[in-house]
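User: Study the fold:
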Amino acid sequence: MSKRILMIVGDFVEDYEAMVPMQILQCAGHEVSTVCPDKNAGDYVLTAIHDFEGQQTYSEKPGHRFAINCDFAGLNPAEFDALVIPGGRAPEYLRLDSTVLEIVRHFNSNGKPIAAICHGPQILVAADVLGGRECSCYPACSPEVAKAGGRYIAPAATMDSAHVDGNLVTAPAWPAHPAWMRAFLKLLES
């Protein structure tokens, strides 16, 4: 059965972590609405491509324009079945938007599936929904998860694992897409 899925993005969202999940979910027959604070349907955000090339952290390259297909203003989260929060640099400022946090709290308090990856859990921390929960994320975000009362689940060395805690599916970075999306699709079916 087709679900309505909300994806919150912003400028310099990680390219693969927005585009690939959107396409996977669409291929599975779901409707994905992409939104960004202060943007409307027809606008776009710029993305960044992060890669693991042997340095101490990921490298960053310019990505693509990622289309916004739904207005953020007036958005009613009750109209959606699930939420996707990609990573990249966008979560560091999206977590400052009170409406974004209210949306996340709605999905959490109603037990709706939430998928967050990489730096996306920074928004979960700011929304105060990780207390007593287990969460994977990009390792540099692990202190925030712990300070928020969550239990950080370290990724496999290959960064390709996902973790499920109730309605929450989290992963460390885009190499985890197969495991992350497989677990999220399973939640959508239940």
User: Anything to note?
Assistant: The chain has a mean pLDDT of 97. Residues 15-27 form the longest helix (13 residues). The radius of gyration is 15 Å.
